[in-house]
Amino acid sequence: MTDTLNKTALTNTSMNGSLIKEAPLLLDIENLSVTFGQGARAFRAVDDVSLKITQGEVIAVVGESGSGKSVTMMALMGLLPPSATVRAKRVMFDNKDMLIMPAKEKRGIIGKDISMIFQNAMSCLNPSFTIEMQLGEVLRKHLGLRGAAVQARILELLELVEMPDAKNRLKVYPHQLSGGMSQRVMIAMAIACEPKLLIADEPTTALDVTVQAQIMDLLSRLQREKQMAMVLITHDLGLVAQNSRDVAVMYAGQVVETSTVPEIFQHPAHPYTEALLQAIPELAIGQDRLNSLPGVVPSQYDRPSGCLLSPRCPYKEAACEVPPPILDTPNGKVRCIHSELPNLPSRTSTPHPATLESQHES
């Protein structure tokens, strides 16, 4: 499919879809696919993904584990193993073609202009080096800082991410920090060079609820202050509602729907999006069991010939036996034969209206 799935959704739009003010395009990924392995055992982990992200925008990429969220962003970062084959029609960042960019120039962008916060900070930090040494390496490599300037910038960064007793944390090792403190170090490392695009991959994994809220508040504040574009990778729809304005929903390696946060929660256009929302516990009605889709995500070696959701979809029709078209919706696009779901059941489990209103006004 050559159409860009989220051409409409990832620009600044009002709730009725009218253009407010389109920011300059920062990242343009078109028809990105990632395949692992060779020959008969090769499998496609990311399939025809297209994303457009404008400067200063926040988009959530949501889906269950294995849907291709992280692999898509790691392909952009060049962090996939040699067994991965990456193909795309276009990958433009800040008006630069990353597909033909020399390796040296790309290394200067990755980690500086594009930065990533990885899952589980405690396993990402090197246990053999102090926090000062690990942050200092980033500053020396990308900014060319030396001597006292390095230490001053490290302290500034730790204070910026609200590290308790920042001055006395410089000489500590990762194992001496709590999970929340380790994540603050990872955030400091990611924003050290003031990137234009920050990728936050499940930034609250393995943190308790209170610390999760603190970390997300911190990321939101830094994003606003630094005017960074941010990709929030998550399976938590609560984080999506509170921290992003636009959403891309992934299933089995494909982006199946894009829209604004209020539209996704109130009027989902894809059956998988609706299934995600229906799985949210609704305490007000006292459910005994959570709603779920029948079946499982298709194996990479036994994928349906048409819509990948068709074996599990309650709206399946004969037309679903062929790859679905990409249709326009009020604030985005959907990979489905329906531009809106027939007989859509009413929902009570939507974000608080104040949350949706704040996303509209931001």
Low-pLDDT stretches are 1-21, 345-350, 352-362
Mean residue pLDDT? 86
CATH architecture of the domain at 55-78 and 103-250: 3-Layer(aba) Sandwich
Helical content class: 25-40%
Radius of gyration: 21 Å
Number of helices: 11
The biggest sheet, with number of strands, parallel, antiparallel or mixed sense and barrel status, is: 8 strands, mixed
**N-end to C-end Cα span:** 33 Å
What is the N-to-C succession of helices and strands? EEEHEEEHEHHHHEHEHEEHHEEH
EC number: 7.4.2.9
Main location: membrane
Subcellular location: Cell inner membrane
Catalytic activity: a dipeptide(out) + ATP + H2O = a dipeptide(in) + ADP + phosphate + H(+)
What key attributes describe this structure?
disordered N terminus, Rossmann fold, ABC_Ni/Peptide_Import, Oligopep_ABC_C, 5-stranded antiparallel sheet, nucleotide-binding, 362 residues, alpha/beta, 8-stranded mixed sheet
Describe the structure in your own words.
The chain has 362 residues and is an alpha/beta fold. The protein has a domain at 55-78 and 103-250: 3-Layer(aba) Sandwich (Rossmann fold), CATH 3.40.50.300. It contains 11 helices and 13 strands. The protein has helices at 69-77, 103-109, 121-124, 131-143, 148-160, 179-191, 209-226, 237-243, 261-266, 271-278, 353-361, and strands spanning 25-36, 43-54, 58-62, 84-87, 90-93, 96-97, 114-117, 197-201, 229-234, 246-251, 254-260, 326-329, 332-335. The strands form 2 sheets. It has an 8-stranded mixed beta sheet, sandwiched between helices. Helix 4 (131-143) crosses helix 5 (148-160), helix 5 (148-160) crosses helix 6 (179-191) and helix 6 (179-191) runs parallel beside helix 7. The radius of gyration is 21 Å and the shape is globular. Residues 1-21, 345-350 and 352-362 have low confidence and may be disordered.
